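Trying the structure run again after the queue cleared.
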Amino acid sequence: IDHIFFLAVSDMTALERMARRQQEDPRSETDSQEKREGRLKEYERLTSMVVWHYSAQNRLTVVDGEEWIPDVSKKMITWLENGG
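Done. Tokens:
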């Protein structure tokens, strides 16, 4: 892996997006708020070392994931097209 993007969002935004996806996608399992919070904690536990590793190697770009999703995608595509 040459480089990774880390989409930084608040816990509140992540939880809201999980809940919205469940409402919009009938195939999604319906989880309680408690289960979503547990999933978020597990995600943070599993990714923290990966983020630290690539950051220490200067191969990590943090992207503000709080922005409108198409804008986030556009920023990442621009970064890739310009070679960082």
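Helices lie at 11-24, 33-56, 69-81. Worth checking whether this holds up in the mutant runs.
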